[in-house]
Specification:
The complex is a heterodimer of chains A (450) and B (479).
Chain A lengths: L1 H9 L2 H49 L4 H7 L2 E6 L17 E4 L5 H4 L7 H6 L4 H17 L4 H5 L3 H7 L3 H31 L5 H25 L5 H30 L3 H15 L6 H11 L16 H14 L1 H22 L3 H13 L3 H27 L15 E4 L6 H26 L3
Parallel strand pairs in A: 1-3
Antiparallel strand pairs in A: 1-2
Helix pairs in contact in A: 1-9, 2-6, 2-9, 6-9, 6-10, 6-11, 9-10, 10-16, 10-18, 11-15, 12-14, 12-15, 13-14, 16-18
Chain B lengths: L2 H16 L2 H26 L1 H16 L6 H7 L1 E4 L19 E5 L2 E2 L21 H17 L4 H5 L2 H7 L4 H34 L4 H31 L3 H30 L5 H15 L8 H14 L11 H38 L4 H12 L4 H29 L17 H5 L10 H7 L1 H24 L4
Antiparallel strand pairs in B: 1-2, 2-3
The chains are: A mainly alpha (450), B mainly alpha (479).
């Protein structure tokens, strides 16, 4: 019976067309992912040699003055991403994976964006997560909207109801055929992607695929629920497509507007001005006061004293630079809090909207979400302070540039770690799938059959 | 064709549609979306006040500087904040993906930072609900839902035969139904533009430019509804069952609106890879250094420059020159690096345009894309508007740096090399006399010119949909 149903379905034009479309888009999505990884690989390999050449070039020019040399030198921090990022590019096409910072004021440097084509961002990445979240549900809808009604409209329903023991079982079998085809297709695409993109088997990849499957099962339960209403094909098609639009376009965009409107981030702009002013104003104020303020951040450096007499000195210069960060700290912290708020508001809404939840989970697993970027920013701040504290004593004691082991200054690497909460990731999808399945069986019971 | 018969059929279609409850539900949903989109649009646009406030804050800070060495001011720099065009309330375009603030200082071209997308949790990628988006995305579906069975269901239940035998001609029926459907579509479109006009009046954004753009925008959306209505009736007439008409139209919507744009953009990006930021910056640095390093005392280019300047003024050392040589060298360095940057940046933009090219040309076969591109451009929220902001900011930066270099040459003694302290300074009134950054928007003409492909596409589609109905009417069958 299953075999026949399977063959019968595979032979339909809808099925062949749908599978072909999914495969083509799947291939494009894998290409997109491949390109993404290659870009990243290229940048990561460039950064090592570029940094070495950059240090050497400046070392040649400013050999005699460590203070001046460090005015020019930039050190890179690399956000190392899992290859899974290629499946769900998320925010990582926008937030730079490599940030280069000098030991000057950090606030002016750490939010530097990457070079991106904004039109590309507008249309969005065609990554595998898009295929799973948008295209697969469409496939499911086309495969199931007339599950029952096609039999009725072609006049075979009467035969079915007399021939089979239970029409419900008959429909469930038909559904199962479609479920297995979709899941198989999903596995094929995932397998192809993991071979091409070099994704290893891990907890994260297991979670990724589990979420992808559960999301498809949610759509099957929703479609089956509509089918059990026993309406005609046109009604089902219109209703299901409307559900699709509401879930994948309208609701997420409503939440997005809500977050943007309710949590604007003017602090970003204020921070920008304040860090500039915080540093620059010191050119015109008392030098000793500047140094005192600087030493209050780092008492261990006070032993280098107060060379405040006329003229320029590096103690004072780097103190000024640091005060740019100190004086914009309030705004900077409040900007960070805004971002945390935005993230938490988004994820609480996402629990009720499967498409959003799936996308955000994908991004989290792939390390391409906002939280990942914020941890990266934190790491940059830590790295910046560490580097500064390494160089301050050397600059202040007028050490020669030769006392520094420059070959040790390779790019620093950051790896995002997050603990997977399976319940939080899978729970919402399981609940909503069960909900629609129960609803479907309620309709069946009510109508005493399908 | 008899005009009164067409109108009669159109009116009849209109009243029959208005009898169904579905229409009111759809209309209700659209109105709710309209209000939410309008509210979002106004709130987005209101964020302008953050930007103007910060522009003022930056300006005050600039003017508050005491007498200073001009090179200190060149590094003090200032900021440019991107202001949204009033019509951005209607279509958000790419604005959420573009930076909003840029730090302008000497020697260095900074990135435009702090885009809304950067603060987003990834949610933004689902899209944004704007009035334009509702009309581009949802309106086609509504027209399809209402019109898919317009002809085919009459054929299915036999009324079409009766209509023909009563003397109505095919052309009249098809035009009548198309116009009836178009009238309903117009009924859905109209509130969007009424609300936009009201909002613009409330915001006080009543320049001629805004009204011209809005009028063109209205015409485009009306044309789009016309095309959709005629296509719907064509498909309905050529389908054997209402189900097949519906599936064809929904499939068309999915391909044109959801799948094609993203796919073509992905392919465009794939075939025209853009340089990474690291490559871009390194290339500029290399070219600048290749030209001459003003910091290197042995650099041939700058040594030659020095020699020729000394010769021209007939002096032996730079301290004997009638101007500050440091200022002169920096002006020269700024000129060289700005030229190189401009060239590289233009190449980068050209690279991005190539990435977008496929999607732009696709507008010829995809009226949705044609409308989307035109709508963004007219609302001042497209790629070219952003490029214009970047160029204006860079021009301002260059002028600021060169002004400070000029001041240094003119007012700082020739033998002074340090910029520190209160000795070698320029009067603070000079800062005030240098005007603040102001962002000019593109002209309507320029906008339409850059979107010529889209404009031609919509016109072609208008003609095509008209002829499709005529052609269909010659071949249509009543049974």
């Amino acid at each position: 019976m299953y075999r026949l149903m399977f063959i019968q379905f595979i032979r339909t034009k809808t099925c062949q067309l749908g599978i072909a479309l999914a495969l083509i888009l799947g291939i494009i999505s894998i290409m997109t992912g491949k390109q993404f990884l290659e870009d990243q690989k290229k940048a990561t390999s460039q950064v090592v040699e570029k940094q070495e050449a950059h240090i050497q070039r400046n070392l040649d020019l400013h050999k005699d003055d460590l203070g001046l040399l460090l005015y020019y030198l930039k050190f890179s921090v690399v956000n190392q991403r899992d290859p899974l990022a290629a499946l769900s590019i998320g925010q990582s096409d926008l937030n730079p994976g490599i940030q280069s910072v000098s030991i000057l004021t950090l606030e002016g440097q750490k939010h530097d964006t990457d070079l991106v084509n904004p039109v590309k961002l507008l249309f969005g990445n065609l990554d595998l997560s898009f295929v799973f979240i948008y295209v697969f549900p469409l496939l499911i809808i086309t495969f199931t909207y007339n599950l029952r009604s096609e039999e009725e409209e072609s006049g075979t329903w009467k035969i079915v109801s007399t021939m089979s023991q239970s029409t419900t079982h008959f429909l469930l079998k038909k559904l199962l055929v479609r479920i297995s085809i979709i899941i198989l297709l999903l596995f094929i695409l995932y397998l192809a992607a993991s071979i091409v993109l070099g994704i290893s088997i891990s907890i994260n990849s297991a979670l990724f695929i589990t979420i992808a499957i559960l999301y498809q099962l949610f759509w099957f339960s929703l479609c089956f629920c509509i089918v059990t209403l026993r309406r005609n094909s046109n009604f089902n098609a219109v209703t299901l497509l409307s559900c699709w639009i509401v879930l994948t376009i309208i609701l997420p965009s409503i939440v997005n507007n809500l977050v943007t409107v309710n949590y604007p981030v003017p602090e970003a702009l204020t921070t920008m001005i304040k860090q500039r002013d915080g540093y620059h104003e010191k050119w015109d104020t008392d030098k000793r006061a500047t140094l005192e303020k600087f030493y209050s951040s780092y008492p261990q450096l006070e032993k280098f004293g107060y060379p405040t007499d006329d003229g320029f000195n590096w103690h004072w210069y780097y103190a000024m630079q640091h005060l740019g960060d100190v004086e914009s700290r309030v705004e900077s912290a409040s900007m960070e809090n805004k971002m945390i708020e935005r993230a938490s508001v988004s994820s609480s809404w996402a629990q009720f909207i499967p498409s959003m939840h799936t996308q955000m989970s994908f991004n989290e697993i792939a390390g391409t979400n906002l939280q990942n970027h914020m941890s990266f920013l934190k790491e940059i701040s830590r790295f910046h302070e560490e580097t500064r504290l390494y160089f301050y004593p050397k600059i202040f004691s007028e050490a020669s540039t030769e006392t520094v082991q420059w070959e040790k200054f390779k790019p620093a690497y950051f790896q995002y770690t997050h603990s997977v909460n399976w319940l939080m990731e899978l729970g919402p999808l399981v609940v909503v799938s069960l909900l629609f399945s129960c609803l479907a069986f309620f309709f069946i019971r009510k109508n005493q059959g399908v | 064709m008899r005009k009164n018969i067409i109108l009669l059929i159109a009116r009849h279609f209109w009243t029959s549609i208005f009898k169904s409850k579905i229409l009111y539900t759809l209309f209700g949903v659209i109105i709710i979306l309209l209000f939410y989109a309008a509210y979002s649009g106004v709130s987005y646009h209101d964020q302008n006040h953050f930007r103007t406030e910060h522009q003022e804050m930056a300006r005050q800070s600039w003017e508050a500087n005491p007498d200073k060495h001009p090179h200190r001011m060149a590094h003090f720099g200032t900021f440019a904040f991107r202001i949204k065009y009033p019509l951005s309330i209607f279509d958000f375009g790419i604005e959420s993906y573009t930076g909003n603030a840029i730090f302008l200082e000497a020697h260095k071209q900074n990135m435009v930072n702090f885009s809304d997308a950067g603060f987003s949790t990834g949610l933004l990628r689902f899209g944004e609900l704007s009035m334009g988006m509702v009309l581009q995305l949802i309106l086609p579906l509504i027209i399809f839902f209402i019109g898919y069975s317009a002809i085919v269901s009459d054929r299915e239940n036999g009324t079409l035969k009766i209509l023909i035998t009563q003397g109505a001609r095919w052309k009249e029926i098809l035009f009548g139904r198309s116009l009836g459907l178009f009238a309903i579509a117009f009924f859905f479109v109209l509130p969007f533009f009424i609300i936009t006009v009201i909002l613009l009046l409330l915001e006080g954004a009543t320049t001629a430019d805004v009204w011209i753009r809005l009028s063109i925008l209205t015409l485009l959306y009306v044309a789009f509804s016309f095309v959709l209505s005629f296509i719907t009736i064509t498909v309905s007439t050529n389908s054997r069952s209402s189900k097949s008409a519906l599936i064809k139209l929904l499939g068309l919507w999915l391909v044109l609106v959801v799948l094609l744009p993203r796919t073509s953009q992905a392919l465009g990006t794939y075939f025209h890879p853009a340089p990474t930021k690291l490559e871009f910056k390194a290339l500029i640095e290399e070219q600048v250094l290749a030209h001459g390093d003003s910091h290197d005392p042995n650099d041939p280019y700058f040594n030659h420059l020095k020699d020729s300047v000394l010769k021209a003024h007939n002096v032996a050392s730079v301290t004997a020159l009638p101007f500050n040589y440091g200022g002169f060298v920096m002006a020269e360095g700024e000129r060289i690096s700005a030229e190189i940057y401009k060239e590289q940046h233009n190449q980068l933009l050209q690279n991005y345009r190539q990435q977008n090219e496929l999607t732009r040309w696709l507008a010829l076969i995809n009226p949705y894309l044609a409308l989307k591109n035109l709508s963004m451009a007219l609302c001042g929220t497209d790629f070219e508007s952003y490029v214009q902001f970047q160029n204006q900011a860079e021009d301002y930066r260059y002028k600021l740096a060169q002004k400070m270099n000029r001041l240094q040459m003119d007012y700082i003694a020739a033998d002074v090399s340090s910029s520190e302290g209160k000795k070698n300074v320029v009067d603070r009134n000079e800062w005030k006399s240098f005007a603040d950054f102001e962002h000019d928007f593109m002209s309507v003409g320029g906008t339409l010119e850059s979107e010529a492909v889209a404009l031609i596409s919509l016109l072609l589609w208008l003609a095509l949909s008209y002829f499709a109905i005529i052609y269909t009417s010659q071949k249509a069958k009543a049974i």
